Amino acid sequence: MKRKFRLTKSEDFAKVRLEGRYYSNPLLALGASPNALTHSRFGFVVSRRIGNAVRRNRVKRLLREATRVRMGQIASGWDVVVIARSASAEADFWALDSALTRVLEIAGLLAPAASSSESEVGTGQASGI
Questions:
Q1: What is the pLDDT, as a whole number, of residue 8?
Q2: Which pTM value belongs to this model?
């Protein structure tokens, strides 16, 4: 993820904590606060409850990648903090990606996209398979 899309300063995290709204599911919690920029910025919090440094860094990498993949669908002008819950330590990429997608939709930050399974079915029927 490019540097301009990251929350790095503790003041930015504190602003989201104080002024933002929070949404959650069993794997993740998400805090969102509007910013005055033309793009959204993301920060990730993975506490020691998740496990050792290797496990925490793995969860952060997976969450960053899930966010990067969805960057074009996420609304602009928000500071977003993604907090990993302890169940995320055992989750794979697809579970974290799905959890992130759900919590972004609940927060109203993700534009609903057409299901890829519908387009695949249509393609298969058109080719005579």
A1: 87
A2: 0.81
Other Cβ atoms less than 10 A from the Cβ of 101: the count is 16
Q: Pairing mode, if any, of strands 21-24 and 28-34?
A: antiparallel
User: What gap in Å lies between CA 56 and CA 71, rounded to an integer?
Assistant: 22
- Model confidence pLDDT, tens digit, residues 23-60: 999 999 999 999 988 999 999 999 999 999 999 999 99
Angle at 23 between CA 51 and CA 83, to 5 degrees: 20
The two structure tokens encoding residue 113:
């996209």
User: Cα-flanking dihedrals φ and ψ of residue 64, to 5°?
Assistant: -65, -40
* Tens-digit pLDDT profile for residues 17-29: 999 999 999 999 9
Spatial distance between the Cα atoms of 54 and 59, rounded to a whole number of angstroms: 9
Q: Are strands 78-84 and 41-45 parallel, antiparallel or unpaired?
A: parallel
The CA distance from 93 to 65, in Å, is 9
Q: Is the sign of the CA dihedral 11, 13, 64, 50 positive or negative?
A: positive
DSSP code, position 85: -
Contact 78/38 with Cβ under 8 angstroms? Answer: no
